[in-house]
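Sanity check. The docking grid for zinc ion depends on where the pocket ends up, so I'm generating a full predicted complex first rather than guessing from homology. Inputs follow.
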Amino acid sequence: MNFKLVTNSPALTETACVVLPVMQEGSLTFSGQAIDKSTESLIGQILDRGDFKATLGKTFLLPFAPGAEAQRILLVGMGKEAELTPSKFRKACKAAYDQLAQLNLHDSFITLADTPLQGRDAAWKLRLLAEMAETSFYRFTEFKSKESEDNLPEEILFYWPENQDSAEGEKALQTGQALGQGKNLARTLGNRPGNVCTPIHLAETAQELVAKDSAFSTQILDEKEMQELGMNSLLAVGKGSDQPPRLIVVEYKGAKDPEEAPHLLLGKGITFDSGGISLKPGEGMDEMKFDMCGAASVLGTLEAVRQIKPKINLVFMIAAAENMPSSNANKPGDIYTTLSGKTVEVLNTDAEGRLVLCDALTYAERYQPQSVVDIATLTGACIIALGHQATGLLSNDEELAKELLEAGINAEDRAWQLPLWEEYQEQLDSNFADMQNIGGRPAGTITAACFLSRFAENFRWAHLDIAGTAWHSGKLKGATGRPVGLLLQYLLDQETKAATSE
Ligand code: BES
Ligand code: MN
Ligand code: ZN
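Predicted complex below; grid placement will be based on this.
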């Protein structure tokens, strides 16, 4: 899809469809007024007659627009101006794009960045609109044998008035598009079935993404190399599968000083989680192909970084394995010595995410990172605690937690913090090893994070539990691309912070 900024008068812009925001109070924006004038007040009459109430997320299509350069007009209800929030704005934009997708047009002209929205500037709105254009027209058709009949738009024009900084507009457009494409990559990887998206597939995807770019270098550790290092916990999870595990590392050098300490993202990449010997029940087990969505979000963020090139150093890491039962699989009661030297008693082979992440966290120490954020579909308990709205956040550093929460708010991809108090740690006490890998039913998300925290003592670290936010179940089953928005925003904020402290 091609994106372009339009700076001249909206009424003079030729398009298959112009998209106009309408406030419930009946007011139009500058674009709306200009187009209303050119159509002898067609829009005004529709509003006066009460045919379109402009409630939030409702749309109204005028299939003809005599007098205007646009062939059609799509009115988008924004609800009451005083009650408009960023998430309501997003909801209305989504409705507009969904309506456009049904119209099968070659192009359209979006003027929604005009909408008055407290606390968010035009660049923020434009960036969100660009991101949402990418994500709203995303279709996952890789495994359909017949081509879809949908004609999605080839070009989208965005109104950006002449009196606004055009470089700022271009940047918002580029950032939004990179983010949208990064999210879509995360969704595609998540949606691919487990028989295709294996640990090796994740490794190859990482390599291909950055192959031609000298700012990146890739390192893939296979079983032999992990064995020599002593990553016995990660290896234990992969043992029950014929698909070999991998530790994937991509380094990015964007800072002026190549030695500047990097920020590190680590994704859980369980390409299928059957539960292992502690086998999961059959119902809905297919959804455990999504158990690599943390890894997918790391690669989605990598894709956005590849396009945007922020001036910071980064390390992207993925702990990839398939969790299957076999006669060689690890089993309840088994004890492993992790890369850190700490020993773990596996009481439930279905608590495998922490077993792959703990060794990766220890491995992360060698990069002496400024911050480490792991992203994992770690616990069903997180869905019980926070539902499908918020990502769970736990951290050993309050400032880091705050930065991530704020990034989530800014990116419309929110997280909510849970406590990581010392008092929870004792639920991991084991009679036979340094710790056990489960903490019982109470506070399952917190005890999982407590387990990880024992391997993150030497750096600022935060954990994002995306079990409830990484994919939709039911009729709209599919990966969401979360939390790529939060992660990219966090990294861009780190870039700003580094630039202002110079
Ligand atoms: N991948 C699952 C967590 C999960 C379950 C995410 C359902 C999304 C939906 C994880 O590996 C797991 O199985 N966790 C167990 C931990 C338990 C055995 C302590 C869980 O949540 O039941
Ligand atoms: Mn599991
Ligand atoms: Zn899992």
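Relevant for the grid: The pocket of zinc ion (ligand 3) is lined by residues 270, 273, 291, 352-353, 377 (CB under 6 Å).
Also worth noting: The chain has a mean pLDDT of 97.
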